[in-house]
Amino acid sequence: MFAELWNNVHTKTPLIHAITNYVTVNDCANALLACGASPIMADDVGEVAEITALCAGTVLNIGTLNQRTIEAMHLAAETANRLEHPLVLDPVGVGASVLRTQTAEALLAKHRFTVIRGNASEIKTLALGSGNTQGVDASLADQITEANLPQAIAFIRAFSQKTGAIIAVSGAIDIVSDAEHSFSIKNGHAAMSKITGTGCMSSCLMAAYLAANLQQPLLATAAATVLMGLAGEYAAKISTATGSMHCHILDALSYIDAEKLEVGAKIEED
Amino acid sequence: MFAELWNNVHTKTPLIHAITNYVTVNDCANALLACGASPIMADDVGEVAEITALCAGTVLNIGTLNQRTIEAMHLAAETANRLEHPLVLDPVGVGASVLRTQTAEALLAKHRFTVIRGNASEIKTLALGSGNTQGVDASLADQITEANLPQAIAFIRAFSQKTGAIIAVSGAIDIVSDAEHSFSIKNGHAAMSKITGTGCMSSCLMAAYLAANLQQPLLATAAATVLMGLAGEYAAKISTATGSMHCHILDALSYIDAEKLEVGAKIEED
Amino acid sequence: MFAELWNNVHTKTPLIHAITNYVTVNDCANALLACGASPIMADDVGEVAEITALCAGTVLNIGTLNQRTIEAMHLAAETANRLEHPLVLDPVGVGASVLRTQTAEALLAKHRFTVIRGNASEIKTLALGSGNTQGVDASLADQITEANLPQAIAFIRAFSQKTGAIIAVSGAIDIVSDAEHSFSIKNGHAAMSKITGTGCMSSCLMAAYLAANLQQPLLATAAATVLMGLAGEYAAKISTATGSMHCHILDALSYIDAEKLEVGAKIEED
Questions:
Q1: B31 lies in a domain?
Q2: C21-30 pLDDT per residue, tens
């Protein structure tokens, strides 16, 4: 199943447009190259519409947003919607400021997103208008566990129903769900949370997988989630600490082939 | 002594707000995670006050400053002061342009900084209104050596007296001083100067240590200085050249535990 | 030949000003340090003229350009021209948007560049006003091969004649040429194209080599091209995949000494 999706990314080399924060933008570009796609970053209103149109998929990430880039995000989203290109929202730190919350809400109100990917606190904030966001990491109270998995899935499905987007929630257990079908994914490693950018990279991988697999958006989102998690598992095995972990995650994203992705997936349909 | 400070960072996981240059911002975020803290970067005036208020400490770094971020820095500083949160200034390249010098001077004139951290040229420029800044690295003439250590300490104490801030000067010998007590620290390795961002990371570590150790700002600043230097020493032992050094410094920041910090410190009170 | 150029960089430690994209700016700074130069990044119109004047060479890279930085680029270029400092243009993704194309054309129309460095698609776009730009990577149709090398060189010489700049084209075969003399360089490794920033770093190395070797701009550009290619070769030998390749390229840039550069060069004058 995932092997085919992997092959499509590597055959089509989709060009992905990311308007993303300057903290992890280099990792995003390298993750896209490593997974078989190609990145372009552009955030000036004078060019975003053209760049989005040139690309096969777009990611909007609101970390380090500003007035100038917010305007660019709306223009990119409008273009992606008009051309029916996959569009991913990564609402980094939503809830940490009114600006982030209002920006994410305005983006959701005006445009159709193919996928919304965030940690549990970010998704909860978007869904409830509140949440418990502490900076850019999920608060402990919001973590998805085996115990609250059924409730979490019901909650996520309702949010998918409301937005029309696939919802991808990162955490110890990752959930990828639309309004009817849900996957829980247990790939990944705790050490990933000690490196900035694993969420941002994951959103970019999703855009690449969506762009190369237009007919199967839910599976494409799940495949990208598995890929990121597997990369963390591989990296954790050979890393001393966070610096080498960072390096090895990027190694693993290019090292994991179709078969490794297929065999390594720890995924269940719920 | 330092073991306790280390434990406080790891127990409290302080959230640190950095308005910092886009050259080394990824290293700053990863250094904060590696040392046990948590980073958030935000530089739009529409959200900085909220983000600063949410955080336990703030770093203002003037590398790649612009008119938009200068305004954000003032707002963040004002908020940190009002809430009595630790506030660190890293005057990268001050003296290299009138804009950097005037910005640093205006920040110092309007706000109280807990720590000002820079290389010898940067601190000299701030203290004398002149200095000998050559880009972002300290000029040779400004280096602190065994020979000029007593004069350097007297100079730094006077600047601390004037500003009310702890002064941290990076170099072959690091000095951490307030108006009355001074530490000279001989941790570190010459190869650190061949990697961009060791100074910026050091300022972030200081904010984390200050935020988790509010009652002991001078010791917290010294501990962060020792941690950065020790990380450089560990990294230099196993690195081929600058690329792996970069990676291993981040490894070491998470690898160094309370005991290693305590035992590894090469610090003297002057 | 190249040993002398290498020595001049390491003896003079030229300070290089880069206005460059935020995707690969950290790699650019670390590449400059690794090759023996020193970086400073600054993009606010309030300081770029001073920073350019303080530096020995300047790089303008139009990846992630915006209205604010475009203005800064013109000011930096004007200053570099007035002081007769080496000036390098890296037209990242020119042709991918009207904004990038018009910005590159305006920069070329108003200022004298010492070197223009891009991939084949970017150079073709600049020379013909069209091209075949797909994002930031060269399209297959534009690649320089053994078969089309003579035509490529004739084309590049004509563009050099028209602009007065040395033209450096990156690809499987790199070309460095002015209107009369051309070098083809076969250093490098295919894996370099799977890491973002090798082109941007190469432009920065060129600025460093030009600044330290003012009398020999063509050879300086060739030496920087060889250095980047050799770094890729060294790195590819010991790298598992793209994450470690990234790290090892920076290692190699500092590891390659004068002799290794001299001996490793696979260069022919055409």
A1: yes
A2: 999 999 999 9
* pLDDT at position B143: 85
We report the CATH number of the domain holding residue B98 as 3.40.1190.20
Verify whether the Cβ–Cβ distance B243 to C30 is below 8 Å: yes
pLDDT in tens, B153-181: 999 999 999 999 999 999 999 999 999 99
The reply to whether B252 falls in a domain is yes
As a dihedral over the C-alpha atoms of residue B127, residue B130, residue B133, residue B139, rounded to 10 degrees, the angle is -80
Shortest Cα–Cα distance, C136 to chain B (Å):
21
- pLDDT, chain A, mean: 95
The alpha helices in chain C, defined as continuous H runs, are: 2-12, 25-34, 48-54, 67-82, 98-110, 120-128, 149-163, 198-212, 217-238, 242-255, 258-264
Contact C63, C96 (CB under 8 A): no
Q: Specify the pLDDT at position A68.
A: 97
Please give the structure tokens belonging to residue C256. Answer: 């390659």
Q: Is residue B269 part of a domain?
A: no
Interface contact A29-C21, CB threshold 8 A: no
The alpha helices in A56-181, defined as continuous H runs, are: 67-82, 98-110, 120-128, 149-163
What gap in Å lies between CA B167 and CA A254, rounded to an integer? Answer: 45
Q: Chain B within 8 Å of A135 (Cβ-Cβ)? A: yes
Question: B44 vs A241: CB contact, 8 Å cut-off?
Answer: no
Q: Any chain A CB within 8 A of the CB of B44? A: yes
C94 closest CA partner among C116, C138, C61, C125: C125
Distances (CA, A) of A71 to A52, A74, B49, B227, C62: 14, 5, 21, 41, 20
Task: Give the distance between the most distant pair of CA atoms in chain C.
Answer: 49
Which pLDDT score is estimated for A243? 94
A/C interface, count of CB pairs below 8 Å = 105
Cβ–Cβ of B25/A22 closer than 8 Å? Answer: yes
What is residue B95's three-state secondary structure?
coil
**Continuous H helices in chain B:** 2-12, 25-34, 48-54, 67-83, 98-110, 120-128, 149-163, 198-212, 217-238, 242-255, 258-264
Q: Which residue type occupies A133?
A: T
Question: In the complex, which subunits touch A with 3 or more CB pairs below 8 angstroms?
Answer: B, C
- Report the amino acid identity of residue A107: L
Q: What angle do CA B99, B101, B102 make, to 5 degrees?
A: 65
CB-CB neighbours of B166 under 10 Å: 26
Instruction: Tell me if chain B has a CB within 8 Å of the CB of C44.
Output: yes
Per the structure block, which two tokens stand in for C122? 């970017």
CA atoms within 13 A on the CB side of C265: 23
**CA atoms of B245 and C217, how far apart (whole Å):** 32
Domain that holds residue A95: 2-269
Distance CA C117, CA C209 (A): 14
Beta strands C115-119 and B57-61, pairing class = unpaired
pLDDT surpassing 70 at residue C131: no
Question: Does the structure show a pLDDT above 90 at B120?
Answer: yes
Structural domains of chain C, count: 1
Inter-chain Cβ pairs, chain B and chain C, closer than 8 A: 106
E strands present in chain A: 15-19, 38-41, 57-61, 87-90, 115-119, 166-170, 174-177, 182-185, 267-269
Q: Say how far apart CA B166 and CA B143 lie, in whole Å.
A: 19
Q: What is the mean pLDDT of residues A29-51?
A: 98
pLDDT interval class at B133 (50, 70, 90): low
The amino acid at B30: N
In a domain? residue B270: no
Whether residue C50 has pLDDT greater than 80: yes
Q: What is the ipTM of this complex?
A: 0.95
